[in-house]
Amino acid sequence: MDGQGKRKFGKDGADLIIKVPRGTLVRDAETNEIMQDMSGSQPFTLCRGGRGGWGNSHFATPTRQVPRFAKAGLPGESRDVILELKLLADVGLVGFPNVGKSTLLSVVTKAQPKIANYHFTTLFPNLGVVWVDEGVSFVLADIPGIIEGASEGAGLGHDFLRHVDRCRLLVHVVDVSGSEGRDPVADFDAINEELKRYSPELAERPQIVAANKTDVMEDPENLEKLRTHVEALGCPLIPVSAAAHQGTRELVNQVAERLAALPPVAVYEPEYVPRTPKIDSSSPLDIQHEDGVWMIEGPWIQRLMANVNFSDYESRMWFDRMLRDSGLFQRLEDMGIQDGDTVSIDGFEFDYQK
């Protein structure tokens, strides 16, 4: 509530809430370590506000009934972070640009991606939910086309390869029509090489090959060469024509069948370990002794207090070590402090023990 009389407290600061897409990773900007995976519905407190100050009534004693001083609050936390979105999708569509991934997504889901007959029509990942049967569905992601060199940053693929990191299964869409003079086998191998360069683990992800544009296929031999090649690698092949809605139902059923045997979408565990803050304790502290209370003030000790978690043993030991190494304990003893005396540091009171 607003600050008033009668020992009431001041108004709390407003929370700053940042809404992010589900699947966003919060990384420490300095170390790139994962601090939180925002894949669930629970909020995450990145920075806590500073502890509130003390009014003059807090310092009242029987002999000092109207203290003429108060204590300001401590500053809140601040961090530099990177927010990285990794889509939460069960299945990722991968393949060269213009092989029909967006068309396939629009046919098997209600998503409405931009579709045109030129490369890089898809500039952003698109998601859709595929309904298979009662109680059976999965999330399908159309990833912008990957080209050779994408793992080194070429084209658009480098920016979006991370979106297939979580996918449990990849549907590799290959154009077998021959309309652009491409070799389907070479295309399949080139995309898998980019996946391997980006992440060997991702390259080992199960794949189903969707041989697309079979309705306008110029040479059936292209399909058979691709089938022989991918099946030797353990990848089933399903001929489809997304534009003509041919084979898409068989593809969806096979994807659902494979997913039923695979682990759930990955959720990343936090890696971040808070670093011990560097605090320069060389500047002098102001020590006052009034009514049996030793009051200690100073800029660096304020920062120290803001970084101590008194419910954690190691944090308390670090706090004790910082005070001892700064020479504060020796100075207090030189000034005559006794066991059991009260020490007040930024409004927190402690019993002194030698």
What are the SSEs and their pairings?
Layout: E1 24-28, E2 34-38, E3 81-85, E4 91-94, H1 101-108, E5 126-133, E6 136-142, H2 157-160, E7 169-175, H3 184-198, H4 200-203, E8 207-212, H5 220-232, E9 237-239, H6 248-259, E10 286-290, E11 293-297, H7 299-306, H8 313-325, H9 328-334, E12 342-345, E13 348-351
Parallel strand pairs: 4-6, 4-7, 7-8, 8-9, 11-12
Antiparallel strand pairs: 1-2, 1-3, 5-6, 10-11, 12-13
Characterization of the model:
Strand 1 and strand 2 form a beta hairpin. This protein has helices spanning 101-108, 157-160, 184-198, 200-203, 220-232, 248-259, 299-306, 313-325, 328-334; strands spanning 24-28, 34-38, 81-85, 91-94, 126-133, 136-142, 169-175, 207-212, 237-239, 286-290, 293-297, 342-345, 348-351. Strands 5-6-4-7-8-9 form a six-stranded mixed sheet, with helices on both faces. The protein is of the alpha/beta class. The chain has nine helices and 13 strands. The chain has three domains: 14-84, GTP1/OBG domain (Spo0b-associated Gtp-binding Protein, Chain: A); 89-259, Rossmann fold (3-Layer(aba) Sandwich), CATH 3.40.50; 278-354, 2-Layer Sandwich (GMP Synthetase, Chain A, domain 3). Mean pLDDT is 82; it is low at 118-122.
Number of domains: 3
Q: So what's the overall shape? A: elongated
Give me the count of strands: 13
Provide the CATH superfamily of the largest domain: P-loop containing nucleotide triphosphate hydrolases
CATH topology of the largest domain: Rossmann fold
Put simply, the count of helices is 9
Q: Order of strands across the widest beta sheet? A: 5-6-4-7-8-9
Q: Would you state the CATH class of the largest domain?
A: Alpha Beta
